[in-house]
Specification:
The chain is built from three helices and 13 strands; from the N terminus they run ααβββββαββββββββ. It has about 220 residues and is an alpha+beta fold. It has two domains: about 50 residues; about 150 residues, Glucose Permease (Domain IIA), CATH 2.70.70.10. β6 and β7 form a beta hairpin.
Length: about 220
Protein backbone atom coordinates (compact mmCIF):
# COMPACT_ATOMS: atom_id res chain seq x y z
CA UNK A 1 0.00 0.00 0.00
CA UNK A 2 1.37 3.39 -0.99
CA UNK A 3 0.61 6.88 0.25
CA UNK A 4 -1.36 9.17 -2.07
CA UNK A 5 1.40 11.81 -1.88
CA UNK A 6 3.69 9.45 -3.79
CA UNK A 7 1.58 8.62 -6.83
CA UNK A 8 2.71 11.59 -8.93
CA UNK A 9 6.39 11.10 -8.07
CA UNK A 10 6.21 7.34 -8.69
CA UNK A 11 4.56 7.92 -12.07
CA UNK A 12 7.17 10.52 -13.02
CA UNK A 13 9.95 8.18 -11.95
CA UNK A 14 8.59 5.38 -14.17
CA UNK A 15 8.47 7.67 -17.23
CA UNK A 16 11.95 9.10 -16.66
CA UNK A 17 13.53 5.70 -16.04
CA UNK A 18 11.91 4.26 -19.18
CA UNK A 19 13.30 7.18 -21.20
CA UNK A 20 16.76 6.73 -19.69
CA UNK A 21 16.79 3.03 -20.56
CA UNK A 22 15.52 3.63 -24.10
CA UNK A 23 18.31 6.15 -24.62
CA UNK A 24 20.82 3.70 -23.15
CA UNK A 25 19.66 0.96 -25.50
CA UNK A 26 19.91 3.34 -28.47
CA UNK A 27 23.19 5.14 -27.84
CA UNK A 28 25.22 2.87 -25.57
CA UNK A 29 26.75 -0.05 -27.45
CA UNK A 30 28.51 -1.72 -24.53
CA UNK A 31 26.24 -4.49 -23.26
CA UNK A 32 27.34 -4.48 -19.62
CA UNK A 33 26.80 -0.70 -19.34
CA UNK A 34 23.25 -1.06 -20.66
CA UNK A 35 22.63 -3.80 -18.11
CA UNK A 36 24.10 -1.64 -15.33
CA UNK A 37 21.78 1.25 -16.28
CA UNK A 38 18.78 -1.11 -16.19
CA UNK A 39 19.74 -2.55 -12.79
CA UNK A 40 20.36 0.93 -11.35
CA UNK A 41 16.96 2.08 -12.66
CA UNK A 42 15.17 -0.85 -11.04
CA UNK A 43 16.93 -0.26 -7.71
CA UNK A 44 16.13 3.45 -7.80
CA UNK A 45 12.47 2.78 -8.52
CA UNK A 46 12.25 0.33 -5.64
CA UNK A 47 13.78 2.96 -3.34
CA UNK A 48 11.06 5.40 -4.42
CA UNK A 49 8.38 2.76 -3.78
CA UNK A 50 9.89 2.02 -0.39
CA UNK A 51 9.85 5.66 0.63
CA UNK A 52 6.16 6.15 -0.15
CA UNK A 53 4.89 2.94 1.42
CA UNK A 54 1.97 3.38 3.79
CA UNK A 55 1.57 0.23 5.89
CA UNK A 56 -1.73 -0.26 7.66
CA UNK A 57 -1.37 0.30 11.40
CA UNK A 58 -3.95 -0.96 13.89
CA UNK A 59 -3.85 1.73 16.57
CA UNK A 60 -5.26 0.77 19.95
CA UNK A 61 -7.14 3.98 20.69
CA UNK A 62 -6.69 5.10 24.29
CA UNK A 63 -7.19 8.64 25.60
CA UNK A 64 -4.49 8.29 28.26
CA UNK A 65 -1.86 7.28 25.68
CA UNK A 66 0.27 9.52 23.49
CA UNK A 67 1.57 7.42 20.61
CA UNK A 68 4.45 7.97 18.22
CA UNK A 69 3.34 10.10 15.24
CA UNK A 70 6.02 8.66 12.93
CA UNK A 71 8.49 5.82 12.47
CA UNK A 72 12.05 6.57 13.49
CA UNK A 73 14.42 6.95 16.42
CA UNK A 74 13.98 9.05 19.56
CA UNK A 75 16.87 11.52 19.40
CA UNK A 76 15.84 14.15 21.98
CA UNK A 77 14.02 14.06 25.31
CA UNK A 78 14.30 17.38 27.14
CA UNK A 79 12.48 20.28 28.75
CA UNK A 80 12.21 23.25 26.37
CA UNK A 81 10.37 26.56 26.17
CA UNK A 82 7.65 26.21 23.53
CA UNK A 83 7.13 29.77 22.31
CA UNK A 84 4.71 29.41 19.40
CA UNK A 85 1.55 28.19 21.11
CA UNK A 86 1.89 27.32 24.81
CA UNK A 87 4.52 29.97 25.58
CA UNK A 88 5.75 27.96 28.56
CA UNK A 89 8.00 25.00 29.34
CA UNK A 90 7.11 21.61 27.91
CA UNK A 91 8.65 18.15 27.72
CA UNK A 92 9.74 17.58 24.13
CA UNK A 93 10.25 14.19 22.47
CA UNK A 94 11.89 14.30 19.03
CA UNK A 95 11.68 11.40 16.59
CA UNK A 96 14.13 11.47 13.67
CA UNK A 97 13.22 9.78 10.39
CA UNK A 98 15.85 8.59 7.95
CA UNK A 99 15.01 8.40 4.22
CA UNK A 100 14.28 4.66 4.59
CA UNK A 101 11.61 5.13 7.29
CA UNK A 102 7.88 5.33 6.59
CA UNK A 103 7.17 9.08 6.36
CA UNK A 104 3.45 9.12 7.09
CA UNK A 105 2.63 11.40 10.04
CA UNK A 106 -0.18 10.16 12.31
CA UNK A 107 -2.13 11.92 15.04
CA UNK A 108 -0.53 11.02 18.42
CA UNK A 109 -3.83 11.60 20.21
CA UNK A 110 -7.45 11.82 19.17
CA UNK A 111 -9.59 14.91 19.69
CA UNK A 112 -10.29 18.32 18.17
CA UNK A 113 -7.67 20.23 16.19
CA UNK A 114 -7.24 23.57 17.98
CA UNK A 115 -4.31 24.95 15.99
CA UNK A 116 -2.67 24.17 12.65
CA UNK A 117 -0.02 26.44 11.12
CA UNK A 118 2.55 26.16 8.33
CA UNK A 119 5.86 28.04 8.55
CA UNK A 120 8.28 28.32 5.60
CA UNK A 121 11.94 28.18 6.54
CA UNK A 122 15.39 26.73 6.07
CA UNK A 123 16.51 23.13 5.47
CA UNK A 124 19.05 22.58 8.24
CA UNK A 125 19.80 18.95 9.10
CA UNK A 126 16.84 17.67 11.12
CA UNK A 127 18.84 17.11 14.32
CA UNK A 128 20.21 20.66 14.37
CA UNK A 129 19.24 22.47 17.64
CA UNK A 130 17.67 25.35 15.69
CA UNK A 131 15.77 23.16 13.21
CA UNK A 132 12.59 23.30 15.34
CA UNK A 133 12.49 27.08 15.01
CA UNK A 134 14.17 27.87 11.69
CA UNK A 135 13.33 25.00 9.30
CA UNK A 136 10.19 24.62 7.22
CA UNK A 137 7.64 23.19 9.64
CA UNK A 138 4.02 22.77 10.60
CA UNK A 139 2.63 22.98 14.12
CA UNK A 140 -0.56 21.16 15.10
CA UNK A 141 -2.34 21.11 18.45
CA UNK A 142 -4.99 18.48 19.21
CA UNK A 143 -7.13 18.80 22.33
CA UNK A 144 -7.95 15.46 23.92
CA UNK A 145 -10.60 15.11 26.62
CA UNK A 146 -8.13 13.36 28.97
CA UNK A 147 -4.63 14.51 28.03
CA UNK A 148 -5.58 18.09 27.20
CA UNK A 149 -3.73 19.94 24.44
CA UNK A 150 -0.90 18.00 22.78
CA UNK A 151 1.30 19.81 20.27
CA UNK A 152 3.34 18.09 17.57
CA UNK A 153 5.54 19.70 14.95
CA UNK A 154 6.60 18.32 11.56
CA UNK A 155 10.08 19.61 10.71
CA UNK A 156 11.73 19.43 7.31
CA UNK A 157 15.31 18.18 7.16
CA UNK A 158 18.18 18.79 4.74
CA UNK A 159 16.59 16.46 2.17
CA UNK A 160 12.91 17.20 2.85
CA UNK A 161 11.50 19.65 0.34
CA UNK A 162 7.83 19.49 1.11
CA UNK A 163 5.69 19.03 4.19
CA UNK A 164 2.06 18.03 3.76
CA UNK A 165 -0.32 18.74 6.64
CA UNK A 166 -3.95 17.55 6.61
CA UNK A 167 -4.99 18.87 10.05
CA UNK A 168 -7.66 21.58 9.94
CA UNK A 169 -8.76 23.66 12.89
CA UNK A 170 -12.07 22.52 14.33
CA UNK A 171 -12.11 19.02 12.86
CA UNK A 172 -12.34 15.87 14.96
CA UNK A 173 -9.42 13.50 14.39
CA UNK A 174 -8.86 9.90 15.42
CA UNK A 175 -5.72 8.76 17.21
CA UNK A 176 -3.38 7.09 14.71
CA UNK A 177 -5.11 8.50 11.62
CA UNK A 178 -3.14 10.25 8.87
CA UNK A 179 -2.11 13.78 9.75
CA UNK A 180 0.32 14.44 6.92
CA UNK A 181 3.48 13.44 5.11
CA UNK A 182 7.07 14.71 4.96
CA UNK A 183 9.06 13.99 1.83
CA UNK A 184 12.64 12.75 2.13
CA UNK A 185 14.04 12.84 5.67
CA UNK A 186 12.91 14.90 8.65
CA UNK A 187 11.74 14.79 12.26
CA UNK A 188 8.63 15.27 14.37
CA UNK A 189 8.60 16.84 17.84
CA UNK A 190 5.87 16.09 20.39
CA UNK A 191 5.35 18.52 23.30
CA UNK A 192 3.90 17.20 26.57
CA UNK A 193 3.14 18.76 29.96
CA UNK A 194 6.09 18.74 32.36
CA UNK A 195 6.15 15.66 34.54
CA UNK A 196 4.35 13.43 32.03
CA UNK A 197 5.44 9.78 32.60
CA UNK A 198 7.36 8.62 29.52
CA UNK A 199 7.34 5.16 27.98
CA UNK A 200 10.36 5.66 25.67
CA UNK A 201 14.09 6.26 26.04
CA UNK A 202 16.75 8.01 24.00
CA UNK A 203 17.80 6.13 20.84
CA UNK A 204 14.76 3.86 21.02
CA UNK A 205 13.17 3.01 17.68
CA UNK A 206 9.43 3.65 17.44
CA UNK A 207 6.61 2.94 14.99
CA UNK A 208 4.04 5.57 14.12
CA UNK A 209 0.53 4.75 15.25
CA UNK A 210 1.73 1.89 17.47
CA UNK A 211 4.58 2.73 19.86
CA UNK A 212 3.64 4.39 23.13
CA UNK A 213 5.50 7.62 23.92
CA UNK A 214 3.82 8.61 27.18
CA UNK A 215 0.90 7.97 29.52
CA UNK A 216 -1.11 10.95 30.74
CA UNK A 217 -3.87 11.33 33.28
Amino acid sequence: MFHKEGYKIMGTAVILLIIVNLLAQTFIFTYWIRVAVLIASILLFFLVLQFFRNPKRNTEVNDVHVIAPVDGKVVVIEEVFEKEYFKDKRLMISVFMSPINVHVTRHPVGGVVKYSEYHPGKYLVAWHPKASEENERTTVVVENKVSGEILYRQIAGALAKRIVNYAKVGEEVAQGSDSGFIKFGSRVDVFLPLGTPLEVKLNQKVKGGISLLATVS
